[in-house]
Amino acid sequence: MIIYLEPSALFKCYWEEEGSANVEWVLAQLDEHDKGETSIWTLLEITRGFIKRANLGEISYDEAGDAVNFFLADMRDLERKKKIKIIGITKGIVNRALVIMRGRNLYAADSTHVATASNTNADVMLVDDRHFEKFYEIEDVKVLNVADDAFRDLFAEIKGRSKKF
To answer: Which domains does the chain have, with CATH numbers?
Structure first.
């Protein structure tokens, strides 16, 4: 099964919020059968998330810098261990994102993540972003909110239906 980690969900591994335990639970299961993917754009969005927390006074700028360094090192480690594949953004993904953005009224970054997930034939895209609330499926990719009370049951159901096992 291919599991696409959209930044709002992946951020929860590095910033404790509702749904964090679910993302950590999924990451712990990644192996040769259940593969994690995300876009290179995710690195920018999560880095921005830490800087935003510093701007809001929730953490110091030094803490934000440390968090960014930890996050980037962890992503390199997860990629080295083949638990997460970081997908580059191609012209084809951008063109597909343009169509999705116009047809679904999503932001550019959100459209880019959907296009990337769809382009890699992901089975599910994990999110915690209100912009995806209206979608159960988009571009043939199931959308699952990590803060959903029934997350683990829904994830197991999608995993059971996956044809990429």
So the answer is: 2-161 (3.40.50.1010)
